[in-house]
Specification:
- The chain is an alpha/beta fold.
- It contains nine helices and nine strands.
- The chain has a nine-stranded mixed beta sheet with strand order 1-2-3-5-4-6-7-8-9, sandwiched between helices.
- A hairpin with a 2-residue loop joins β2 and β3.
- α4 crosses α7 and α5 crosses α7.
- The protein is globular and about 65 Å long.
Length: 352
């Protein structure tokens, strides 16, 4: 494996390339991005904890540890995407957690010339990417206060990937947090009829491309919802508009993942699912698209989320986009407040 080097995000972010061998398109890699808590973060959160205890009439510890001391977060992006959300990373590091984001093979930082962007024929292949990331995360980990706890966080397709992985590795993660996870096909009533056709096409011509239906409205909604005081820039080669082409083999893998979720998973750790309160069809541009999920049918996702495990919390956020943390300020603040409430309860109940 390579060493840590400065990341394209600058500031406190670093990246590390994870070699994964070769496939028929050449060398395959994943890329791990990290942001670490600082002494200032620990002092600030310790001061906050002491203030809360003082208001409650409780004695303050001599050195209050940050709420998420001993926690590692692994984030996985969605389809036609990569990690670029500095604010999300800082939510975690400001509370004492080490934050890591994985650009999966053939996405973002991991995409190499000659590769089919985002292509995979079996979502379980990502076990190799995740295993390589966890091996690096385990290095230099401070275990002086006991074993560290792993929090998985996935957006959209990344939420599907991590849900399946967590079910296959029941003792690995202490918590799973999903941001609009893609747990059900948008045309759910047609899935039974569509799946055999896609399966046959995937077997005969896996790289056949489906018609492009992305009109760029979701990207426009994100741009119009962006905070001018905390603007973000993305690499159009890594996050193109319209989105990357959809291939038959990849779609077959996604539908198999949806079927597995529908059959019921067995995630042992508590799960938090954050979703917009409503969906809107992106058939034409309207301001509605800046305050709803224009990618998934959120009611279907909410129902399907109940199949993930025995402890599932569903948070519906009014005015949120598909990526709830890229919504307009009011909805974004609501999303972070709900995330903080859930994480605080989880951390305290699990012994942090």
């Amino acid at each position: 494996m390579t060493e840590w080097v400065p990341d394209v995000l600058g500031d406190e972010f670093a990246q590390r390339t994870l070699p994964l061998g070769d496939d028929d398109e050449g060398a395959v890699v994943a890329t791990l991005v990290r942001a670490l808590p600082t002494a200032n973060d620990a002092h600030r959160m310790g001061r906050w904890e002491r203030a809360v205890r003082s208001l409650r009439g409780l004695p303050a510890p001599a050195e209050a540890a940050p709420l998420l001391d001993g926690v590692d977060v692994l984030y996985v992006h969605g389809w036609s995407d990569y990690f670029f959300q500095k604010r999300l990373a800082r939510f975690w590091t400001s509370r004492g957690a080490r934050f890591f984001a994985l650009d999966l093979r053939k996405y973002g930082r991991s995409l190499r010339d000659g590769q089919t962007p985002g292509y995979i024929a079996d979502l379980a292949t990502y076990d190799e990417d995740i295993a390589a990331a966890l091996e690096v995360i385990a290095q230099d980990a401070d275990t002086s206060r006991g074993p560290r706890r792993l929090v998985l966080m996935g957006h959209s397709t990344g939420g599907l990937v991590l849900s399946l992985w967590a079910s296959r590795h029941p003792d690995a993660a202490s918590a799973v947090i999903l941001n609009s996870p893609w747990l059900e096909f948008q045309l759910a009533p047609l899935r039974a009829a569509l799946a055999p056709v896609v399966e046959l096409q995937a077997r005969l011509r896996p790289l056949d491309v489906a018609p492009q239906i992305d009109l760029g409205f979701y990207a426009r909604a994100q741009a119009e919802s962006a905070d001018p005081d905390d603007a973000f820039e993305t690499n159009p080669a890594w996050r193109p508009v319209p989105s990357m082409p959809v291939h038959a083999g990849w779609l077959h893998a996604i539908l198999r993942g949806h079927r597995a979720v529908g059959d019921g998973l067995s995630i042992q750790s508590p799960v938090c699912v954050l979703l917009s309160a409503r969906s809107v069809m992106p058939s034409r541009w309207s301001e509605e698209l800046t305050s709803a999920d224009s990618v998934l049918v959120v009611d279907d996702i909410a129902r399907r989320a109940l199949r993930l495990g025995s402890s599932v919390t569903i948070e519906r956020i009014d005015g949120a986009l598909h990526d709830v943390f890229l919504s307009r300020k009011a909805a974004r603040d609501d999303a972070y407040a709900r995330l903080e409430r859930w994480v605080t309860g989880w951390a305290r109940s699990s012994g942090s």
